[in-house]
Amino acid sequence: MTPRLGTMRLACMFSSILLFGAAGLLLFISLQDPVELTPQQVPGMKFSISTQQHDGHLRIPTERVTRDSTSGSPRGLQLQVPDQPRPHPKAKAAGSPLRLRQRRRRLLIKKMPAAGPIRGINSSETFVQPRPHAMDSRWASLHQSQQERKRVMREACAKYRASSSRRAVTPRHVSRIFVEDRHRVLYCEVPKAGCSNWKRVLMVLAGLASSTADIQHNTVHYGSALKRLDTFDRQGIVHRLSTYTKMLFVREPFERLVSAFRDKFEHPNSYYHPVFGKAILARYRANASGEALRTGSGVQFPEFIQYLLDVHRPVGMDIHWDHVSRLCSPCLIDYDFVGKFESMEDDANFFLHLIHAPGNLTFPRFKDRHSQEARTTSRITHQYFAQLSGLQRQRTYDFYYMDYLMFNYSKPFSDLY
Known about the structure:
With about 425 residues, this protein is α/β, with parallel strands linked by helices. It has a domain at about 135-160 and about 170-255 and about 320-380 and about 405. Helix content is about 45%, strand content about 5%. The chain contains 17 helices and nine strands. The protein has a five-stranded mixed beta sheet. Strand 2 and strand 3 (about 55-60) form a beta hairpin. Helix 9 (about 255-265) packs across helix 15 and helix 12 (about 300-310) packs across helix 16. Residues about 30-55 and about 60-135 have low confidence and may be disordered. One of its GO terms (cellular component) is Golgi membrane.
């Protein structure tokens, strides 16, 4: 064998080895799991929201944000997020421990059972602990109250609305939610449960006004200063639902219903009288006068209840007496804070404390409309419901049963079952 021929054979062998090595490298890269290429989540906060779109709907699983069990930080109330831990250069160079953890994670994912509709969540996962210096008996009591309200709400959802967690969040589900970006707050509006004053508070938080007393009723309800969540695009909705503090305030259902009736039908109203009043009088009042049919004024409470309970209503449902479970979808959207109208001052100011609102901002006490008229109380509510038969009271209670159950309100009459 000549030296030149031996050199050529060695060169061919070396080229073959290089080609086989390159092919093996390409095959190895193509088989890598894409999970290994995903960015790491922030420690202590696991986002499992799917931003897939089906038929124009947002697909959001029930378990949207969970927290590290050692952290008391809630979704939305964690104002400072710790920096990502940086891997040690040697560990990064070696690569094998990280790849081993990723392979184990893939095996765990494959073995995990499907998530249930509602998962029990302990208190440390759902609510922020106030700072130690502020943790007096009053804050502790309010904190415990929040835990209990959310527990009752989740249990009711798990028992009666088990399929809600697998439904898609649509713009309709978030159409009553107002957005305040500076303090990262989402507020679901429940009419006749302090919503006017809450929107005033949001406007002050957003820097749109210096005081709640300076904001007129028409500015609150007919202005466009506050954005609704359904005005954002898909990514904007998902981002805010998963990272902002979500809250709603509720009210005893019968009291809220009577408050709405007094406001809309016992006072001049250019919308509710001609739209709802005329239809109600035409359908439920025998021998209604021409004047009543022309103006829609003078609707009586029993006539209003007939409309409410009629499955073939002459006009549709209205937000002022619709169920909270439909307005705010609490079985689909996991609210961080559930306040009550009956304890408004304490609950509202506790919430403002938790989101670090300006110290001089408190929830306003003034009555938004008909300020000379007494607020609707339990006593006034009983006076109105005394005009109804026992069957009508029972059917009205059945109509609002989920609201009574989810928000732990007692039966308003002893003869209700």
